[in-house]
Amino acid sequence: MPSMEMGKPSESQVTNPSAFPTKNAARPLRILFCANWAVERLNKADCTRWNPSYTIPGQPYWFFKHANEPVNIEVLDCRCFWGLDRIERKLVRCYPSKGIAAWIRSRRYDLVLSHGGQMGLVIGLLQALAPHLSRTPHVMIDVGAITGGYSGWKNQIITAGCRLAVSSLAAIICHNSKQLNFYRDKYPEVAQNAHFIPLGVDTNEFRPEPCEQEDEIICVGYAKRDWNMLVRAYAGLRTKTRLVLLGIPNGRMIKQNGVDCIPRVGIEEMRNRVRRAKFVALPLENIDYCVGQQTFLQSMAMGKAVLLPRIPAVCDYIRDGATGFLYDVSSEEDLRQKLQMLLSSDDRVELVGRAARAAVEAEFSETVMTDRIIGLLREVAQDGLKVSANPGRNA
Fold first, then answer.
1. pTM of the predicted model, to two decimals?
2. CA–CA separation, 59 vs 383, rounded Å?
3. Closest by alpha carbon to 15, among 342, 269, 394, 379?
4. Torsion region of 14: left, alpha or beta (phi above 0 gives left; psi -120 to 50 gives alpha)
5. Fewer Cβ in 10 A, N or C end of the chain?
6. CATH of domain 17-200+366-394
């Protein structure tokens, strides 16, 4: 691995589509995809549901539909009989039963791709403890910075277990480039196999459409949002434009003049509400890992200007004043001033919204992300074949 400046990912770690050629592959990759959510089997596409939440027999799963080579994906989701998954998640914050099932089944595949550590760390730990029983390469998409980044678990026993688990990974993928620094600092066992691949969204499913604009600012989402800070900043404005908190839990409803609180809605209604809004404001919390990326990229893909805090999970995706707007995450006053500026700059908001759409198409689409991920997986699988042919390599 080439040397790197601290704080700056190397060229090989900012994975580019051209870095891993995928054409003329010998045969389709056989991948076991371990999902940290429920995945149902449907007979046809459902535009009212989150795409990763279902599979259709005979059709590629989720972003794999954009692959420029055939891939065979089998999905193993988190659900267990009798609600065991809910018990496991509450007691140990992971899914050991499904992780064990994935580990047992892994030898049938060219590689295992886990999304999140709830199953991924369990698989990694089993592979580290019994490497002779499973040589299938394992790649983990790490959305939570192992156990929550610097502010996560402080228990030394858990940290030691996580270090052992990640030591068996063939590669780790993150959607936040600052996680590369975190790995080098706290998990050097995986740092040299870490790759920053920006998240991508479906630019066809989330696209601009002509519609009547409402006099609204909209905040979308139900987790890791500082709604109170946004409402306080909004309350300091002199405006007739309403603030819509879409997806706020029933137990967190806020009473304030000009503020509408709407519980979680279906994805189609969410798209329609975002398209009609003046712009999108997401008061994301300042945490060490990925937060809100799907939401603000979907909004950008629909041609909306977004107002976001200047935090690591955001800065890889937004050019301040060009493809979106950033405010100081710790400053309610800066947030208020940015809201006021956007409310009085309709032309600029529209221009930035168009630029946001173009940026997503060029850099943050599912197609671009898929090229990068499949290219990396193909290289990992090829390396795995070499190891299998020469077992002494890892001895």
1. 0.88
2. 28
3. 379
4. beta
5. C
6. 3.40.50.2000
Domain boundaries of the chain, sorted by first residue: 17-200+366-394, 216-363
C-alpha to C-alpha distance for 97 and 129, rounded to whole angstroms: 16
| Single-letter amino acid, residue 88 | E
For residues 242 and 166, give the distance between their C-alpha atoms in angstroms, rounded to a whole number: 47
Give the 3-state DSSP-derived string for 208-224, with helices as H, strands as E and coil as C: CCCCCCCCEEEEECCCC
Report how far residue 221's alpha carbon sits from residue 299's, in angstroms, rounded to the nearest whole number: 12
pLDDT in tens, 111-157: 999 999 999 999 999 999 999 887 899 999 999 999 888 888 778 88
Q: Which two tokens stand for residue 384?
A: 């795995």
What is the distance between the alpha carbons of residues 318 and 337, in angstroms, rounded to a whole number? 19
How far is residue 100 CA from its own chain's centroid?
24
Task: Report the amino acid identity of residue 365.
Answer: S
Beta carbons of 276 and 166 less than 8 angstroms apart:
no
Record: fold of 216-363: Rossmann fold (3.40.50)
CA angle 378/35/74 to nearest 5° reads 55
Q: What is the pLDDT of residue 76?
A: 96
Q: 76 and 104 in contact (C-beta within 8 Å)?
A: no
